[in-house]
UniProtKB/TrEMBL annotation:
Claim: Cytoplasm is one of the keywords in the record: yes
Name of this chain's protein: Uncharacterized protein
InterPro entries named in the record: PKF_sf
Keywords carried by this UniProt record: Cytoplasm, Glycolysis
Single GO MF annotation: 6-phosphofructokinase activity
Superkingdom to which the source organism belongs: Eukaryota
A GO CC term attached to the entry: cytosol
GO biological process, one term: response to glucose
Originating organism: Polarella glacialis
Length: 173
């Protein structure tokens, strides 16, 4: 059963996705930060899908090469691994059992345990998630024609170019 935090997060993601669709901002992944704070302090934004991918063009004149792509690794989070050394030995750690989810009362606003974990554990979880996404992507694109992939790339690049032209989106103009 989802907790109040799960419901708030799901609602925020769905609402933001609806705002993106209504504003015709397709190709964006909803990004919510400051999840450890109160819901009113969360920051909601969008990340272009194309920024998560790398495309490698085939060499000019080489018709046997195919367009390749991959998801970028999140190496920027590896700085968090220094926190791993501060973890106590497993036999010295305190067992945390939050019990059943509370929907009312003083414990209803308790944050999920994942947000309370040291960053190193979350980095490992994210790495595993990225590996699973990569596997899913390779299975989903198996047998996909090169022309389709090129068309998708062209559409994503067009979206990026359009966003760069809008002064209200990048905040620099």
């Amino acid at each position: 059963m989802p907790t109040n935090f799960d419901c708030d997060l799901g609602y925020a993601i769905g609402y933001a996705a609806g705002v993106f669709v209504e504003a015709e901002r397709t190709g964006l992944l909803v990004d919510i930060s400051k999840l450890k704070e109160d819901v009113s302090q969360w920051e909601v934004g969008g990340v272009p899908f194309s920024s998560l991918m790398q495309f490698k063009e085939p060499e000019p004149g080489d018709r046997s090469s195919k367009l390749t792509y991959s998801i970028r690794p999140r190496s920027r989070l590896l700085y968090d691994l220094s926190y791993e050394s501060s973890m106590p030995d497993p036999c010295e750690r305190t067992l945390v059992s939050p019990g059943p989810a509370q929907f009312e009362g003083p414990c209803s606003g308790t944050k999920t345990q994942t947000l309370c974990m040291p960053q190193a554990q979350r980095v490992r979880q994210m790495a595993k998630t990225e590996q699973l996404i990569k596997e899913l992507k390779s299975k989903a694109s198996a047998g996909c024609q090169v022309e389709v992939l090129k068309a998708v790339k062209m559409l994503l690049q067009g979206g990026v170019d359009l966003m760069k032209q809008r002064p209200d989106l990048d905040g620099r103009r």
